[in-house]
Design brief:
The protein has 177 residues and is α+β, with helices and mostly antiparallel strands. It has three helices and ten strands; from the N terminus they run H-E-E-E-E-E-E-E-E-E-E-H-H. The strands form three sheets. Strands 1-2-3-4 form a four-stranded antiparallel beta sheet, with no helix packed on it. A hairpin with a 3-residue loop joins strand 8 and strand 9.
Length: 177
């Protein structure tokens, strides 16, 4: 029985393609995954989707990291920084974030990593590749697919915008007469 459970755990771990990281308050969650060998990510806040599954990856003169990838491993960590910023209201900044480095390799065995930093208020990511001479990016994937239920927060109704512009124009005319 113990041998069967161990085998099941090894199979489950070997087949995993997703890596997840959350903010220190656990409300903001980023999931990076492979969809048909293509790197993708999604973001949720308090269990509600903010960014739907969206593409990641890039193509360079040394290799294509947009498709045919496998997840090799992942590393997690914590980032805590304090610094002073001049010329703003709150000059002392405490930055606390969780870190995830998801390591991938392409069909040719070339490695690439995506580093994520997720704090309570923001998300940042960057691509990391081992130095192999002069690397020139040819193409970079990366977009943000917003859920339809969230679009009203980002895209105002055109009729409302026309009405607001008309009111502003009428106010401007009244002010000059």
């Amino acid at each position: 029985m113990k041998l069967q459970l161990l085998s099941l755990a090894l199979i489950t771990t070997a087949g995993m393609t997703a890596a997840t990281i959350s903010s220190p308050d656990s409300k903001l969650v980023v999931t990076t995954d492979l969809s048909g060998g293509k790197p993708v990510y999604s973001v949720s806040y308090d269990g509600k989707p903010i960014i739907m599954e969206s593409p990641l990856g890039f193509d360079t003169n040394i290799g294509d990291f947009t498709k045919g990838l496998t997840l090799v491993g992942e590393k997690t960590g914590v980032v805590n920084k304090s610094f002073e910023q001049g010329k703003i209201k709150k000059s002392h900044i405490d930055y606390n974030a969780n870190q995830l480095i998801a390591e991938y390799k392409n069909a040719k065995g070339q490695k690439m990593s995506i580093e994520w930093l997720v704090s309570d208020n923001d998300i940042a990511f960057r691509y990391l590749i081992p130095a192999e001479g002069d690397t020139q990016p040819d193409y970079r994937e990366g977009s943000h697919r917003l859920p339809l239920s969230r679009l009203h927060h980002y895209v105002p109704d055109p009729a409302e915008r026309r009405h607001d512009r008309l009111e502003a124009y009428q106010t401007l005319i009244r002010g000059t007469l």
